[in-house]
Amino acid sequence: MRSACRGRYNRRVDGVKKFAHEIKATDKNVVVIGGGDTGSDCIGTSFRQGAKSVSNFEILSKPTTERPQDQPWPFWPMRLRTSSSHKEGVERFFSISTKKFIGDKDGNLKGLITSEVEWIKVPGERPVLKEIEGTEKEWPCELVLLALGFTGSEMTIAEQLGIEADGRTNIKASVKDYMTNVPGVFVAGDQRRGQSLIVWAISEGRQAAHHIDTFLMGSSELPLKGEGDLPRI
């Protein structure tokens, strides 16, 4: 919604372009799956379009309003954040997972089924998601907007190539040249650093291009800026 539907909606509001087929929230029960910035954008746009109701599902546990003790500065704190869109009346639900979409006889969405979940933490390992039995619930819903966050790299190809990953399932690569443990295989952006801003992907992509060119040609005339360790956002 943030990148496609919202951009389309903005162009329609500005009178730049009219669309024959639009995804609109008008008079619909809307569920936004994902509690980040994109989810907030989807919520705000749904209200602008006159949704009947807007609910926000987040699979993670409800965070605290204060900085967690295990995330000291300069780490990014996973705190509960409330945007102006949230304040417009959305209902927020945490520790909830969507299991199934329900359609009518014409193939239109009419609801979904969820279950409550909990995260089992084991020292030294990644948390394990566990469904809580007996918590299934059906929700009326005519529009679902997916605003799911980045949870790690797809490791299928990496595993086939023998590429190493870190504890967060990101692909390991040197910030000196963005090469993985496999010679000739490079990685940059979200796949290397994890979920971050697009400007980091652009910067790392340009730097990686320089080093790939050097690897293939022996030298490179491509620009190289900001080489070395970069602070993570």
Produce a short descriptive summary.
This protein is an alpha/beta fold. The protein has helices at 5-13, 37-48, 156-161, 190-193, 198-217, and strands at 29-33, 53-58, 91-94, 96-103, 109-120, 128-131, 137-140, 143-146.
Q: List segments where confidence is low: pLDDT < 50 over at least 5 consecutive residues.
A: 227-233
Order of helical and strand elements: HEHEEEEEEEHHH
- The CATH topology of the largest domain turns out to be FAD/NAD(P)-binding domain
What's the rounded overall pLDDT mean? 87
- What portion of residues belong to β-strands? 15-25%
Total helical elements: 5
What does the largest sheet look like? 4 strands, parallel
What would you call the structural class?
alpha/beta
The helix content, as a percent range, equals 10-25%
Describe this structure in words.
This protein is of the alpha/beta class. The protein has two domains: 5-146, 3-Layer(bba) Sandwich (FAD/NAD(P)-binding domain); 156-217, no CATH class. It contains five helices and eight strands; from the N terminus they run H-E-H-E-E-E-E-E-E-E-H-H-H. The protein has helices at residues 5-13, 37-48, 156-161, 190-193, 198-217; strands at 29-33, 53-58, 91-94, 96-103, 109-120, 128-131, 137-140, 143-146. It has a four-stranded parallel sheet, covered by helices on one side. Strands 4, 5, 6 and 7 form a four-stranded antiparallel sheet that branches. Strand 4 and strand 5 form a beta hairpin. The longest helix has 20 residues, at 198-217. The radius of gyration is 21 Å and the shape is globular.
